[in-house]
Amino acid sequence: MSEHDDKRAEEHGDTREEQREERDESGNRLRKELPQEVSASVPAPQDIPEPDPEPDPEAEDPERQLTGRQRLVQGLWPPRVSRAQLIVAVLLFGLGFGLAVQVASNSDNDSALRGARQEDLVRILDELDDRTQRLEDEKQGLEKQRDELENSSDQAEEARKQTIEKERQLGILAGTVAAQGPGITMTIEDTKGTVEADMLLDAIQELRAAGAEAIQVNGVRVVAGTYLTDSGKGVSVDGNKITAPYRFKVIGKPQDLEPALNIPGGVVQTLEKEQATATIERSSKIVVDALRAAKRPDYARSSSQ
C-alpha cells in the first residue's frame, strides 16, 4: 500500500472515531436531559391527587332505602290535617248524618205501607183517585162560573147570585152558619185516659185531607184557626174543655172519609195502640149546628172598598 493510501485510511479512521465520539456525547446529553424533562412534565405517582369518591345517593338519602309501603305509611301517619280540611270533614259528616236521618224517616213512613194488605193498598189508591177527582170537579165548577159570568146577559144579577152562594159556602167553612149533608160520625172511647190533643188533631187533619167540609167535636165547631191542647184528663178545643168519649160529626163524602181514617198506620190504628177504640158510622144526613161567632178583623179590610 502506498503512503498516500495509508494517510487516507488514517484520516478516514480519525474521522469515524470523531463521529463516534460525537454520537456518544449527544446520547449522553439526551440521557441526562430526558429524565429531567420527563420528571418536569409528568408528576410522580405519589404527587397525583386521588379523585374524590362519588357520593352514594342511597347512603345519603335514607328515604330511598324504604319500600313503597313504608313510604305510604309515613305519609299517612301521623295525620297532618289543616284547618280547611277539618272544616270540610265536619261539613261532609253533617251532610251524611242528615241523609241518614232522612232515609231512616222515609223508611219508617213506608214501613206501614210495606206491611199493608192488598185490600188496604187498593183502598189508599182509591182515596187518592177520589181526591184527584174532587179537585178536578172543583176546577170545572170554577170554570163554569167564569163562563156564566162572561156569557150572561145580566152579568150584575149573575154576579149577585154567585156572591150569595159563595158567602154561604164561606159561612160553612168559617162556622158561622149551620150545615147538613152526608158524612160520618166517629166516636172515640178512651177509658185509659191515653188520648191526647195531638191524636185528635191528627184525626181532624186526616178528615180535612179526605174532603171534610164541616167538622164538629163534642159541640165545638172546628174551623181553620182551631187549636187543641191537653187539659188535665181531657182536651181543650179553642179554649173549650171536652172529655171522652170524643164524638166527631163530619160532613163530606163517606166513601172518602172512612177509608182515610182506616189506612194502615192511620188514626184508627194509632188509637188502638193507645188502648182506645174508634167507631165509625156512615150516614146520609149529618147535621153540624155548632156555630162560631163572626169576628170582625181589626186591621184587614176588603180591597174593593
From TrEMBL:
Region (Disordered): 1-64, 135-162
Segments passing through the bilayer: 86-104
Sorted UniProt keywords: Membrane, Transmembrane, Transmembrane helix
Hydrolase is among the record's keywords: no
Pfam families referenced in this protein's UniProt entry, alphabetically: DUF881
Biased composition annotated in UniProt, kind: Acidic residues: 49-61
Basic and acidic residues bias locations: 1-35, 135-149
Assigned protein family: Belongs to the UPF0749 family.
PANTHER family the UniProt entry points to: UPF0749 PROTEIN RV1825, UPF0749 PROTEIN YLXX
Protein name: DUF881 domain-containing protein
Organism of this sequence: Streptomyces olindensis
